[in-house]
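Below: protein 1.
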Amino acid sequence: MSVQIVADAAEARRRLAGRNRLTLFNAYFRLHMPREMFDACDAGPSTWWDIPADIALLRGYGSETKLTTAGVLLLLGYIPVRGRTTTTYRRSNIWDEDLDRLSRIEPIVYQ
């Protein structure tokens, strides 16, 4: 089964908005899952969500899709940083999508 990556750069940026640091596996899921599934996972104000247990997505996580995902991250300004156990991809610039996401988060009320 072939898993398709999002084809539009603006959509890819929207899916990664709010995340300045990603693992390749997390980026893969954000960029390859169907839009309905992404919207359902991303509906809350939090930028952290559990990766859905989608068998087709897991099967599609091969060497070719890893390279494609890494290439998209590099094109979008993420830089690979080697950690202790895995490589993460980081960026330092702020996108309009990030600002939009931050404006949707409700303030925390301390009591």
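Below: protein 2.
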Amino acid sequence: MTPSQKLARARHCFQAWLNTQPAEDSPDTIQIRPSEPQAEWSESVFICDGFYRGRRFRTDSTSAIWFTEEDELKIHDEDGSCVETLSSAEMEAQFAAAQPQTDTAQTEPLRRAA
């Protein structure tokens, strides 16, 4: 898996985690487009001691850091307490489950040489 694919997977997992959190709106609020993300978030490069360490994702009440070397996503609440840690295997399983299932095994080639 390339670094850009790992980053896309980390973004997906953070967005999926945000979508599982209870909405802060009142229960009388009707969500018109339920497929849209519930929270806006920003992303920045995470540098520590002058070295690239990964990416940081932030909302008003949550932050997360994806560490490239460990390939872990650590999610923190407003107080800075770690509320969840997703390992590489957990992120991969969650990302794979969200992807559409396609049959990659083909019995015959799509094109033949002339």
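Helices lie at 3-20, 88-98.
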